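Mods, move this if it's the wrong board.
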Amino acid sequence: MTEQLTAQPPHSATWLVHLDRSMWVGGVRGLMLQALHPHAMLGVWQNSSFQDDPFGRLRRTADFVGRVTFGSPEEADEIGRRVRGIHRSLRFRDPATGRTHRLDDPELLLWVHCAEVSSYLQVARRGGLRLTERDADRYLAEQRASAAYVGLHPDEVPGSCAEMDAYFKRMRPHLRVTPEAVSAVRFLMWPRLPRELRALSPGKPVWFPFGALCYYTLPDWARRLYGVLPEVPPAAVTAALRAFRVSMNALPEAVHERAFMPATRQMLQAARDRLGAAGYDLGKGLRGLTDPRRRPPSAA
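Not the wrong board. Structure tokens:
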């Protein structure tokens, strides 16, 4: 194909992971994991409305991930410039030292990236998405492009499961639970719904089991640090995650996408339009495009 229609092509490992509805669990897990880095947590706490609307942050993250996966290359470049500009302008203060730090510190950006993409991958695999070790390595290698959009050098980002495991091993001595981190986890398990989703408030009690599921998918060492919920058998967590994944993956795309911001939905529809015009078979939606049989001959 002479023209790249989306930031990541439909045959990529990224599409396999990012089209899986277990991403919702992975996204919240990623936020919980990110909060264990004291400076990363302070940066979020002092520069966002996370305390009031953690679900809003999750939707904005979904928009970024969607654009650098399914958006056009131009859309991916644009949101990357926007995110880098925002991060470049923000600072936070460490009350323990009195020092002011930049939010675009490469160390912090790398932590946020690794916590996020490792959560997507590990939750999807535990939830039942069939990925080989080679597929998993390919996913992390592809995610170096996402890291570049936020200002990281791709060569300095873990690009395989072994490299990611080594990174977390190096980082663990630097992680701790702060009051802000505990508050963040509690917010994520009982969030305040944004105004446009207040109609769903009667169903809010259903969120707690979801938030608890996200918490229980954290690594053992992260749960030990937090200690906010009693431990449950790992097999029960895996079974619950697989049931969640199966039920969410059964939803039609149009229903599932109501959870996204309007701009995200418009971006996804534009992606469908471009791919359809290029000859892709969208009879089974974007998820169907991971099947090689639904690609036009020119995409082979």
